[in-house]
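Here is the promised in-class demo. Please do not try to memorize the tokens; focus on the logic of going from shape to residues.
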């Protein structure tokens, strides 16, 4: 149910440093060397960088004007940046990413669009759209779904999210890239329904619809072919989004390939046990468990009082921490180092042996690999992942194989969760280019 090993979404750096920065004192949050604003302000004449836009104020109010718009209707676009191939190559190299797939410069834009909440009510969301400045007018699309962040300002279109860098790389190869912020992140209202697979998919599909409307404003048209990828939480979303596209959720879009990275595809069988048995680092396990329980309780009746689930003093602060207005590192600093310190005895046992509504919630969001894609599939993982163990990917591989689908598993070796992502995006960029 997870992303990053508690780096704030994998911050982008400007200097040639290793992509996995050392842990902070206390070992809870890994951080990049510099903010994305500095990384993207590569020229004095550039348009505003991604991080130049502050996080939107939190509000549950939905703009009534969107009532006139269908799902996926484009409400606004905001220009963010314009980069040359040389600038992109420099930025990618500074973050340890192979830039050999760069062919074009890019422009990036924030989209605001109409979508729906988990209970089907109208709302708005935001997404990052990146377009190549060269190449043809008609473009295939890459959907890049991001991993866990609890802070709305770290979403792809508003802040320091490494998915923004992945989007720049994929677009520089000649495709449009859509990176949804999901509900409650970026400039969207409300709170993020973390690991609510259905609403993450609906927001991602509606982002594709909005991008289809936005592209002609910038001299491009989307062909409808979609290459679907994503990291960690976004890897799970990518598999579920691919399934909906394959089912014909919108006939204007055709699934072309699937290449998710380190997704928690088996929450019940792999990820939850790993959060407790040491395969996931303790601080990461605490972050993910807290976020998941708080977010899901807003959708389903898991508990009536946080003191039922969380030990003191965390019970008095955990729901406020996950309001999506607190930065990831700030949250981690106010949580304990292990699940045993976080959870009451009753809920520790419930996580070990899920039952009742809790088990129903898990199964509602599980099973994203239990279908038969008719397109090429590559599943990225790494043996050194201490956030989303590789057993998740093997479980997905088995689910697909049982349905007659042979997925290629790309194991990036003894690198951590984020290190696998850095390698995978370069791999995907080359693979997508080869698929045509």
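The designed amino acids, position by position:
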């Amino acid at each position: 149910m997870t992303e990053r090993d508690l780096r704030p979404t994998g911050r982008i750096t400007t200097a040639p440093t290793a992509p996995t920065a050392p842990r902070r004192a206390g070992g809870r949050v890994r951080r990049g060397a510099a903010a994305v604003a500095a990384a993207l302000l590569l020229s004095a004449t550039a348009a505003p960088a991604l991080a130049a836009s502050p996080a939107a104020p939190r509000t549950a109010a939905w703009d009534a004007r969107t009532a006139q718009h269908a799902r996926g209707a484009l409400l606004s676009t905001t220009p963010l940046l314009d980069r040359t191939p040389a600038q992109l190559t420099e930025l990618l190299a500074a973050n340890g990413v192979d830039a050999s797939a760069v062919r074009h410069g890019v422009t990036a834009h924030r989209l605001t669009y109409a979508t729906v909440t988990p209970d089907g009510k109208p709302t708005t969301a935001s997404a990052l759209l990146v377009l190549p400045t060269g190449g043809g007018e008609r473009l295939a699309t890459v959907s890049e779904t991001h991993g866990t962040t609890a802070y709305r300002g770290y979403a792809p279109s508003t802040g320091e999210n490494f998915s923004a860098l992945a989007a720049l790389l994929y677009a520089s190869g000649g495709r449009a890239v859509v990176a949804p912020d999901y509900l409650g992140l970026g400039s969207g209202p409300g709170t993020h329904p973390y690991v609510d697979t259905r609403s993450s998919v609906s927001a991602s599909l509606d982002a594709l619809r909005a991008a289809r409307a936005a592209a002609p404003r910038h001299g491009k048209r989307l062909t409808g072919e979609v290459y679907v990828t994503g990291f960690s939480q976004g890897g799970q979303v990518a598999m579920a989004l691919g399934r909906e596209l394959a089912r014909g959720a919108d006939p204007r879009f055709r699934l072309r390939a699937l290449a998710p990275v380190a997704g928690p595809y088996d929450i019940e069988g792999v990820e939850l046990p790993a959060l407790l048995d040491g395969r996931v680092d303790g601080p990461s396990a605490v972050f993910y468990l807290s976020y998941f329980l708080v977010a899901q309780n807003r959708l389903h009746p898991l508990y009536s009082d946080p003191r039922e689930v969380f030990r003191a003093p965390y019970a008095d602060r955990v729901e406020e921490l996950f309001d999506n207005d607190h930065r990831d590192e700030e949250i981690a600093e106010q949580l304990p180092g292990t699940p045993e310190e976080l959870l009451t005895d009753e809920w520790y046992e419930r996580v070990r042996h899920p039952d009742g509504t809790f088990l129903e919630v898990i199964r509602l969001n599980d099973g994203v690999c239990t279908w038969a894609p008719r397109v090429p599939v590559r599943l990225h993982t790494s043996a050194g992942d201490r956030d989303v163990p590789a057993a998740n990917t093997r479980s997905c591989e088995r689910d697909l194989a049982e349905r007659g689908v042979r997925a290629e598993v790309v194991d990036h070796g003894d690198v951590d969760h984020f290190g696998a992502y850095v390698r995978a995006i370069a791999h995907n960029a080359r693979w997508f280019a080869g698929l045509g």
